[in-house]
Amino acid sequence: MLTIGGAAGAASFTHVHNVAASHGQDGWLAWADAIVLELMSIAAGLELRYRKRQHASTRFPATVLMCAVTLSIAAQVVEAEQSVIGWIAAALPAVGFLVMTKIALNRAATPGPHRAAAIPDPVVPV
């Protein structure tokens, strides 16, 4: 799971960097765009999990996550071959990264089986 998520994140990161660099974000700015966009997805996922545990509104982090994924997919599709297959293939890293993040966050959020503390039998005087 970590390998798939890492590969998908790296591919998505590379697409975002390349698009930023080819559209006027020279040098470190292209790297910053890629870093910020990819880490926003992770941060939004972590915040979603936290807010669900606190029974708080998840609207803002869910919106941030969807915006980050949409921008990442857009960056990948811009570089793709202009065909349906090209667009699907280009979108795979962002979708894969989102899916692996979701699986990892759900696993971390799932509590283990709850075991009740053993209650000893009452002591009977002899």
Report the sheet-strand fraction: under 5%
The count of domains is 1
Contiguous low-pLDDT stretches (5 residues minimum) are none
The radius of gyration is 21 Å
Overall outline: elongated
Total helices: the number is 4
Helix content: over 70%
Order of helices and strands: HHHH
Number of strands: 0
Pfam family, one: DUF2637
Keywords: Membrane, Transmembrane, Transmembrane helix
Transmembrane segments: 60-78, 84-105
Protein name: DUF2637 domain-containing protein
Which tags fit this structure?
elongated; 126 residues; 74% helix; mainly alpha
Q: Would you write up a description of this structure?
A:
The chain is an all-alpha fold and 126 residues long. It has one domain. Helices cover 74% and strands 0% of the residues. The protein is built from four helices and no strands. It has helices spanning 2-22, 28-53, 59-78, 84-109. The chain is elongated, with a radius of gyration of 21 Å. The N and C termini lie far apart (59 Å).
